[in-house]
Hints:
The protein has 184 residues and is α/β, with parallel strands linked by helices. It has a domain at 40-138. The chain has helices spanning 2-36, 144-150, 156-174, 179-183, and strands at residues 39-42, 47-49, 52-53, 57-60, 63-65, 68-77, 82-84, 87-94, 97-99, 102-110, 115-121, 125-127, 132-138. Strands 1, 2, 3, 4, 5, 6, 7, 8, 9, 10, 11, 12 and 13 form a 13-stranded parallel sheet that branches. The longest helix has 35 residues, at 2-36. This is Polymer-forming cytoskeletal protein. It comes from Vreelandella sulfidaeris. Belongs to the bactofilin family. Pfam families: Bactofilin. InterPro entries: BacA/B.
Amino acid sequence: MFNKAKNAPPENKAATLIKPDTRSSSPTGSPTSSARSSLSVIGSNTQVEGDINSDEDLTVEGRVSGIITCKQHTVTLGSKGYIQGDVFAHTLHVSGEVKGNLVVLHRATIHKGAHVSGTIVAPCLVLEDGSVFHGSIDMDPDNDMLKSAFNDTSGKTAKTAALSKTTNTTSQKAATVTPDETEA
């Protein structure tokens, strides 16, 4: 019994240690609130007519008529949200309705219940069961529309794509031995 009593206090101490860890995650929640400040939300009762340029994540719960440009961040369209116009984003999540072109640098996900009409250009695309899509899809990472849309960004992917295009054009015109061939 004496050993059992010794085991009980360390368990209580462990529980006490867990509580500060849980509380220490609350201050982590405080930086999350500062991370939330880098999120723009268009509310469900809001209508926007015009172009939107954002340097932070964007969530659309309302209606937008215009071009959304969020090239280095995520655009999320809520289940009751509506976009009429083009969207340029690093990552895209669609649960509502879109009528326009979607040009996405990384990954586009069209969730169950979403309705999309237009062209989707994205190297990675997920169409969930229950989503509706009318239009065309281009998943070529070397797509000219994708390259030209993201050439202005300072992201490494866009610079790499532009550099790759320049290198390919130069090697095609010159027809010289590339560094890879000299190493082989």
